[in-house]
C-alpha cells in the first residue's frame, strides 16, 4: 500500500462556494443520502472515525477535500477530483483509465488508494479519517459528468450565460448554480431537504426499480474497475445531455430555462447515484475489513490483503486539461458568477 507521503513524493468543515465539485449543496446532499443507507455498524464506525456523532456526520466533511486541496499541504490532491477523458464529445464519449489517468493520479486511482487505506487498521486515526473524508467527497465528484471530461478543461473554458449571469462557465453551472437554482440555497438544511426528497424517490418512487443497478458491479477488491465504471457512466452524459449539440450551441443565449430544464433531471440522477453508491461502498468496506478484524482479531489473510499496495496510476504525463486546472488553482471559476 502506498501512503499519502510515499505515493505523492512520486509526483511531487465545508468549503466555500466556488471551489467544490457539485458545490457544497451537491456534496452535502450526496452525504445525507449515504447516511440514510449506511447500516448501523457502519454508521457507528464512521462516526467514531470522524469524531462526530451529530446527524450530519458525513455531510459536515463532504467538501473537506476541496478545502484541503487549496492548502500547501493538500496541493498534491488536486488531480484526484477528476479524470480527463481524452474523447471527442459530442460524437464520442468514453473513459479509458490507462489512457486518461496520469502519474499525478486521478479520481479513479485516488478512490482505489483511499479504499485500501480506510480499512487498514495499521494506520493512525488521523490517516484513517483523512481516507474516509476523501472517499465521501470523491464518490460524489466522479458522478459529475464534467469531472470525467478533458474537453475545454472539463467545461471550465466554455463561457456561457446562465440565468442572467454572463460571466459563467459550464463547469461552474453544473457544479453549483444549476443545483442551487433548483433548491434555492446551499445550506446543510437545503441539502438535507433535497436528500430527503431523493431518498423517497429511491425507496418508493422513480428510482426504486433502478437503484440496485447502480451498485450491481461495485467491488472494493476491484476498486479501479468499479470507479472506472462510475466515471464511464457519468462521462456518457457529456455526449447525450451536457453538450449533445456541441460547444457552440451552449453559447447562444441564456442556458436558463431551456437548457436547465433539459439537464436538471440528470443532475438529480447523478447526485442520488453518488449517495447510494457511497453508502454501499462504505458498508462493504466495513464488512470486509473493520467488522472482520473486530470479530476475529488478527487475521493473516486480511492483513496480507491490506498490505498489498493499491495500484499506482498509469505513468502518463499530465495532459493539457490537467495542466490548465492546476494553473487555475483547481477551482471552477464560480467567483466570476455575476450579472452584467
UniProtKB/TrEMBL annotation:
Pfam families: S1-P1_nuclease. InterPro entries: PLipase_C/P1_nuclease_dom_sf, S1/P1nuclease. It comes from the Eukaryota. Coiled coil: none annotated. The keyword Protease does not apply. The keyword Isomerase does not apply. This is Nuclease PA3. Residues 1-21 form the signal peptide. One of its GO terms (biological process) is DNA catabolic process. Gene3D superfamilies: P1 Nuclease. One of its GO terms (molecular function) is nucleic acid binding. Transmembrane segments: none annotated. It comes from Lophiostoma macrostomum CBS 122681. Keywords: Disulfide bond, Endonuclease, Glycoprotein, Hydrolase, Metal-binding, Nuclease, Signal. SUPFAM superfamilies: Phospholipase C/P1 nuclease (SSF48537). Belongs to the nuclease type I family.
